[in-house]
Amino acid sequence: xxxxxxxxxxxxxxxxxxxxxxxxxxxxxxxxxxxxxxxxxxxxxxxxxxxxxxxxxxxxxxxxxxxxxxxxxxxxxxxxxxxxxxxxxxxxxxxxxxxxxxxxxxxxxxxxxxxxxxxxxxxxxxxxxxxxxxxxxxxxxxxxxxxxxxxxxxxxxxxxxxxxxxxxxxxxxxxxxxxxxxxxxxxxxxxxxxxxxxxxxxxxxxxxxxxxxxxxxxxxxxxxxxxxxxxxxxxxxxxxxxxxxxxxxxxxxxxxxxxxxxxxxxxxxxxxxxxxxxxxxxxxxxxxxxxxxxxxxxxxxxxxxxxxxxxxxxxxxxxxxxxxxxxxxxxxxxxxxxxxxxxxxxxxxxxxxxxxxxxxxxxxxxxxxxxxxxxxxxxxxxxxxxxxxxxxxxxxxxxxxxxxxxxxxxxxxxxxxxxxxxxxxxxxxxxxxxxxxxxxxxxxxxxxxxxxxxxxxxxxxxxxxxxxxxxxxxxxxxxxxxxxxxxxxxxxxxxxxxxxxxxxxxxxxxxxxxxxxxxxxxxxxxxxxxxxxxxxxxxxxxxxxxxxxxxxxxxxxxxxxxxxxxxxxxxxxxxxxxxxxxxxxxxxxxxxxxxxxxxxxxxxxxxxxxxxxxxxxxxxxxxxxxxxxxxxxx
Length: 634
What we know:
By secondary structure, the protein is an alpha+beta fold. Helices cover 38% and strands 20% of the residues.
């Protein structure tokens, strides 16, 4: 049969032109697609041979070959798999005649980046045509197992292709006549041994079948030099598909380093074998240190996704929630399609099911680490505690599990504590878990809000991560005990050793009532209320937020994100036992003219703002007033 020439469809020609002019910069993916196709062909032949004893096919050495010829600038990807018949080539390769082509083109034009275009290539099953990104001409030679004749398909991607019968070995070979070399960019020289090794190692290392490099090699053709032996480029070690007792820790660690590009060993290895209606294997790793860009928008999160040991994508975000973005690893699904995109994964119910299972597995591993190896858990929490606590806001289903593996600094000592341990130590009559938030332990440890709690030996959690400002309000309580900020609302410590009687309180309130009202008038632009404090023992004053107001730190956080935050007036609390407050009250009661006391009231308020890490409304004026006061004392 002589060669026949056919025309591509209009849409197919448009598609090929997009490929030829390189729709995205990562050209390496073409080799992944061709190797994946070859692996599928080998899988199909193995299955067909098992089902049909009469199939005339050689299955003794199933493999994939990469053959290069630098002089001719060709790269051939060859397999001895199931192959295709003449009709199948015309249907599957020649025409791209499927209903998804038009949709592919529409979505492709919408894709705003290389990653989006790459996902579309996999989604619409046109990966074979990605070869035109690197080749001026593509020749496919194939013979279906059990058939006597083969087929040759050839195209330059310019609107036509040819089909003809030809002698061919079992399987399929795709020969790419590569575009001219770019002397200034050796990264895309696909006749180079090191380049092929790098791409196979990255994308196809764990494919079941050996990927061998054959053809003209260094030194071949010189006197006394024979043909080079084929070199297998992939390890074929799917560690995640093997039981843990079959794999050494060193092997796990090498896989982790290959995946993460981290030179240190992981902190924890988390294997998972899921069987049933939807089968998959996972091998996850918790790193031993947090990357510097963990909290940046550009941080690449997610694990590698394989389907039947064929690499699909890096950084598959759909498999783990954002608060586990530090976890690295591999997930290999048995029942997903190779033609899957990130968009499809976001909507796939199997993926959602996998995410739930993987999340619970990681959290249970952290809990086991917490119970069995406190040193490793301490390392984990130091490196990743802040990001894990994001889940307390976003993952209500796993909130209890997250609280169980969270720990916090406390006034009890240098070692962090869990909420469960805190509740166990609570004094009789204590109804709240007390905490304080701030920028650092030193700043909040010295806060005036701590004075009464320290005097009464009441434990307080010291929360210094930015996310702490938010999750405590979202969680609200733990084991029936409310979470109470000691810097917000009114604090009643009567049940925890407050020795003042109700009568004494009433007398004190009456004694200072006039001063409190007058100070409120003088500071009306800055404070919403002035009251006596039960939380101060040493400092003269402090400012607190109302029970449902934002803290200053939270306001600053929102402003840093560009969000408008209305100014919130604070509550000024005065310590009736402090000499400065007593003196101010005495002067107020004895003097008819209170104007001379206004400056003292302003200083009292500004000192309280400074004590909690804030800044004066008018720093220059504050400095002048303090300097004048100091001068008068000399």
